[in-house]
């Protein structure tokens, strides 16, 4: 499509926000310079941005195709694509192309920059491939939704545990040349959801699809499916076997918030211990009886179906939403009720300690007294944290804020463990 015809179709607006950090240690990079262009015309710079003390740009409004393109299967691409060139003193330049922007939604592009060395001074290039609803990808090879104990993939865990990270094999299982990526579990789910559905869909459809993605992934974790076949990874990026994961891709803020809100959930059937391997297809180019269809879930949500009603429509009335009691890689579990002004105790003290540690990397966060009392200063620090990391700014530590703080605290204090 020519740039002129593309612009004629880009009648709506979406937002793009960029967050630049170091590859290791999770330090924000201040004053990184970013040149933004259309992927179809990368030499024509349309915006020049720079990062603030938290390594972030302001959200920039950009043209996007009409909203209706993502509400029905269409021959027209429902998202616009942008390219960024990122430069920062002392770091390898990085180019990311194919960043998708949907109308009325905020797209978040995280950029992890490597230190420049004499041996490795060249720029990095990341290409984000098409959303699976628009591109051409192989359909899922059917499997049993419950893995028998006697087959390869024998269950080895006694209970469902939310992993801190998964190892993603970037290709089909047999491709020994494909890269393996260590990816935090929540980041993996956000990546897959942003790669396989449209963030413009109704909330109930997004939640139903995200729950299916999480349950499928946790089945792979719980059964150690690939390890029991002699592989050293958790899951693949091949749609024929698993889900579409795109290294370095952007995510969408509403998808990110939904995942943060329910990342400890999965789908169950009565008297079945393992998470259900919830398979699905698009329902347009590929049909899949007894599985959820992505477009079908969207249409049901349009009709007012709830998340669980959508799931039961496809997977049967015995399907229910379960939660895992154990979450790996966090200092402590959520207290079970919100922390807010007036709260006191050890959980508040832990929260204050974690915020102060994060503030060493993110100096926009105020340092607060570690006294176990949730006062106005702690509220202000929580509000600033929520603002930096894309959460609703309430000053209240709910489930998703607690675990987002835990996640960032772990990232800044011991991220090197992931590379051992």
TrEMBL record:
<feature type="domain" description="Peptidoglycan binding-like">
    <location>
        <begin position="344"/>
        <end position="404"/>
    </location>
</feature>
<dbReference type="InterPro" id="IPR036365">
    <property type="entry name" value="PGBD-like_sf"/>
</dbReference>
<dbReference type="Pfam" id="PF01471">
    <property type="entry name" value="PG_binding_1"/>
</dbReference>
<dbReference type="InterPro" id="IPR002477">
    <property type="entry name" value="Peptidoglycan-bd-like"/>
</dbReference>
<dbReference type="InterPro" id="IPR036366">
    <property type="entry name" value="PGBDSf"/>
</dbReference>
<protein>
    <submittedName>
        <fullName>Peptidoglycan-binding protein</fullName>
    </submittedName>
</protein>
